[in-house]
Specification:
The protein has 624 residues and is an alpha+beta fold. It folds into two domains: 361 residues, Sodium/glucose cotransporter (Up-down Bundle), CATH 1.20.1730; 135 residues, Hotdog Thioesterase (Thiol Ester Dehydrase, Chain A, Roll). Helix content is 64%, strand content 10%. It is built from 22 helices and nine strands. The strands form two sheets. Strands 3, 4, 5, 6, 7, 8 and 9 form a seven-stranded antiparallel beta sheet that branches. The protein has a two-stranded antiparallel ribbon with strand order 1-2. Strand 6 and strand 7 form a beta hairpin. Helix 5 packs across helix 15, helix 7 packs across helix 19 and helix 16 packs across helix 18. The longest helix has 49 residues. The chain is elongated and about 90 Å long.
Length: 624
């Protein structure tokens, strides 16, 4: 038990450090500059609470799904598929924001190099920062990253102690609760920030690959996700409070107008005020303060970058390295698995942002508007059964883009209502999407019940038979929902078939023989084909369906008279090949195994390889 608590503390430290990215580092300073202590708390409280809620809810998800210590990994593999591009973009933008903020607000104000060499200097800084993230990511990996972050966390505590010792007392006596610099800021007021911060920060962790990977690893280590994220959220809150109060102390020392500069939009930004204050101190009075504070910033950025590297390597390896796409298959696997190309994109975007004189807030607008709808839908798909419908990608992207433009326009003009609308519009749409789908499901179920009851009336039964005979259309009978339905049934996109294992399925030990699971999957696949393609005839068909590959991972054993439930669905397809995914469950709904198979299509005349026939597209697409 003591080891589990120690493990939870180590993971909590890693959670807090990984979440202290550019947003947590420098925006806490800006919020204090703009709105005083109330602004700092408005930013810090929902930020920390969002972390804690992620851990609390993912613990519930892990317990609700079968698979033991792999339950959360199995769930995420299925859950993440419709969000793959968004998860990737979210991670890329988070890393870009961190590198941009560290370069612009730490190395920029120091002006170590001036003149024509400034651009080359910033390029080298960006390269070194990203290279350090790659190095630490490769060195530790997800299994050992908590120990690496434990060492860095110890150094960070020492840096904080040095800062506190040199700037005693840290918290100024006249720390203002209200806005500190309303005249200097000249941008949107606190009311315009309140709703976007609450919405964006509470749902933000749900699209962060770093947190999903950590939660999965914590669960694998039989440690409480809830406790780890509670410790992490608490430590993260203390770090934000320290940095914000440090900014307030600096403002009371030097005055509001002393620090910061006007941006492209005319607003005054002061993210780098602490760096400016330390840099302007006399050499004799600086002591260890510059080394301690700059190390504090560097550790916070480094623990985000190495976590991002590890998370991207994991995510890309799963989603690209095993892809059946022909174009992807032409690229080297090591290139697909590596985050290096992504980090090069991050470097390019960072340098472009520095050249264009952008500010941290210009990157942040995505997290307060564009990603809100996707994150909200991700939470709904974890807990609301009727939200498991195919993701409306075009509608979601269109609405996210509209929300981004509305929010950006509201920010540049200082229109609070537009800021709120840009954040709330995706959230409202997701609520409508989930509950309208639920309403449609209820109406469909009730309509089916009414039609079933009406069909017992002789007159209506005769009319139905006549209509079928006249139209000649194929009418699919309602599939029974009993788990032992004779020909299987659909549950969402999954085709489900159940059977009872008997003596003929077992080996001499009494367990179901391993080879039988492949036969169970094969039988379910044939029933699936028969259901979606009832008119398929081997005598007249122009194509055959062949198995290109089959793989299965055994998780648990089953015995005689256990109820075996096989679920199969279409998971992916390209021009030539189709991939089916399957899962096998036991009597207690525990996962027995999972796998996938790849199908190809050949001519019935000469067995030459064909593109996927139109009949297959028509039959399979509704279940992709």
């Amino acid at each position: 038990m003591n080891f589990r608590w120690l493990n939870a503390l180590l993971w909590g430290n890693s959670v807090a450090l990984a979440w202290m990215w550019g947003l947590g580092l420098f925006f806490s300073v800006q919020m204090t500059f703009m709105f005083g202590l109330q602004g700092l708390l408005l930013f810090a409280v929902p930020n920390a609470f969002g972390l804690m809620m992620f851990g609390f809810l993912t613990q519930i998800v892990a317990k609700r799904h079968a698979g033991g210590q792999e339950s959360l990994a199995i769930f995420f593999d299925r859950f993440s598929k419709p969000f793959r591009l968004i998860l990737y973009l979210y991670q890329v933008l988070a890393i870009t924001l961190t590198v941009f903020a560290l370069t612009k607000y730490l190395f920029g104000p120091l002006e170590l190099v001036s003149g024509p060499m400034t651009g080359l200097y910033l390029c080298m800084v960006v390269f070194v920062v990203l290279a350090a993230g790659c190095l630490f990511g490769e060195e530790f990996g997800i299994q050992r990253i908590k120990f690496g972050h434990g060492m860095l966390g110890t150094i960070l505590v020492a840096c904080v102690a040095v800062v506190l010792f040199n700037l005693n007392p840290l918290v100024p006596a006249n720390l203002s609760w209200d806005a500190v610099a309303p005249a200097a800021w000249r941008g949107p007021d606190l009311f315009g920030y309140a709703i976007p911060l609450l919405v964006g920060l509470l749902v933000g962790p749900w699209l962060d690959l770093q947190h999903w990977q950590r939660a999965i690893q914590i669960h694998r280590e039989n440690t409480s996700i809830r406790a780890s994220y509670f410790f992490g959220g608490t430590l993260f809150f203390l770090l934000l409070l320290f940095h914000g109060c440090l900014a307030a102390w600096v403002m009371n020392k030097g005055g509001v107008e002393t620090y910061g500069k006007n941006g492209l939009d005319g607003f005054r930004y002061a993210h780098e005020m602490i760096v400016q204050y330390i840099d302007r101190l006399d050499a004799g009075s600086q002591g260890l303060l510059p080394a301690a504070y700059y190390s504090f910033l560097g550790i916070c950025a480094l623990t985000t970058l190495d976590s991002g590297y590890v998370a991207l390597k994991w995510f890309l390896g799963v989603n690209l390295g095993k892809s059946q796409n022909l174009l992807v298959g032409m690229l080297p696997k090591r290139l697909l698995d590596s985050p290096i190309p992504t980090f090069l994109v991050v470097a390019a975007v960072t340098l472009l942002g520095l050249w264009a004189r952008l500010e941290l807030e210009y990157f942040m607008v995505f997290f307060a508007s564009f990603f809100v709808g996707y994150a909200s839908l991700a939470i709904a798909r974890c807990f609301v059964p009727n939200s498991q419908q195919p993701l409306p990608q075009i509608r979601m992207f269109s609405l996210a883009s509209i929300s981004l433009v509305i929010f950006a326009f509201g920010y540049c003009t200082g229109a609070n209502l537009l800021l709120i609308l840009g954040s709330m519009l995706p959230l409202v749409y997701v609520i409508w999407l989930v509950f309208s789908t639920d309403l449609l499901r209820v109406v469909t179920e009730r309509a089916g019940e009414v039609l079933d009851a009406a069909s017992e009336i002789p007159g209506i039964r005769a009319i139905a038979k006549t209509a079928t005979a006249v139209t000649g259309s194929h009418v699919v009978a309602p599939q029974p929902q009993d788990v032992h339905a004779l020909s299987g049934h659909f549950e969402g996109r999954w085709f489900v078939y159940s059977l009872i294992a008997t003596y003929a399925d077992t080996n001499s030990v009494g367990n179901v023989y391993f080879g039988m699971y492949g036969m169970f999957v094969g039988k379910t696949r044939e029933l699936f084909f028969n259901t979606v393609m009832p008119d398929f005839d081997l005598k007249t068909t122009s194509f055959f369906i062949l198995t290109r590959s089959f793989e299965h991972k055994f998780v648990r054993e089953s015995r005689e008279f256990d109820t075996i439930t096989v679920k199969i669905k279409v998971s992916d397809f390209n021009r030539k090949f189709c991939t089916l995914e399957h899962q096998i469950f036991g009597s207690a709904n525990e996962l027995l195994g999972k796998g996938k198979q790849s199908l190809l299509f050949v001519s019935s005349k000469d067995y030459s390889l064909l593109d996927i026939p139109p009949e297959i597209y028509t039959a399979f697409i509704p279940y992709v």
